[in-house]
Amino acid sequence: MQPNKQKSGAILGILLPMGLVCLFALCSLMLAMIGGRAYKQVQATVDDAHNSSVAAGYLRTKLAQNNQSGAIALRNEDGVQVLVITVAMQDSAAVLETRIHYNNGRLLEETVPADEAFEPGYGTRIALLEDCRFALTPEGLFTADLVGPAPQYTTTHLAFAIAEGGRL
After folding, report:
1. Measured CA distances, 134 to 17, 36, 56 (Å)
2. CA distance 121 to 106
3. How far apart are CA 133 and CA 80, in angstroms?
4. In whole angstroms, what is the distance from residue 3 CA to residue 146 CA?
């Protein structure tokens, strides 16, 4: 009876550690799969919020660079809200306008001579957005509500005080 006991003890001595290694491998694989799904969901949320926050940061920087009295205005061109930043060139009599507007899911910017006609949809794409609304109060407070694309529709609100003849 002794030889059978040693044989079964040797098999048990091999099977138990192998079973524990397999259990560890299975748990590690499941943990990696769950972690991968969680990472994917977090990254999708970050990507969706990226467009509206990039657009807000871009607008804030553009306004801060050109925050002079009379340089920033909001116009309505053929039913399109256009943020207009006027820059007079120092070495010539030319006046340029940077026009930022929303068209078909894109926030666009173009820099053109001030006397050039506005054409919606033209310009360099700043960000993809679901919606964008600008407002400028008489006191000089510029606000923008930027809604990121589907499926998250992340909303970013921007407020910026414009220099208005020393009132702000």
Report:
1. 67, 39, 11
2. 9
3. 10
4. 79
For residues 14 and 20, what is the distance between their CA atoms, to the nearest angstrom? 10
At 109-136, the pLDDT tens digits run 999 999 999 999 899 999 989 999 999 9
**d(C-alpha 100, C-alpha 77), whole Å:** 12
Secondary structure of residue 13 in the 3-state scheme:
helix
Let me know how long the chain is. 168
| DSSP 8-state secondary structure symbol assigned to residue 5 | H
Q: What is the pLDDT of residues 66-102, one digit of tens each?
A: 998 889 999 999 899 999 999 888 777 888 999 999 9
pTM, two decimals, is: 0.70
Q: Which two tokens stand for residue 54?
A: 């990039």
Question: For the residues of 17-76, what is the DSSP string, one character each?
Answer: HHHHHHHHHHHHHHHHHHHHHHHHHHHHHHHHHHHHHHHHHHHHHHHHHT--TTTEEEEE
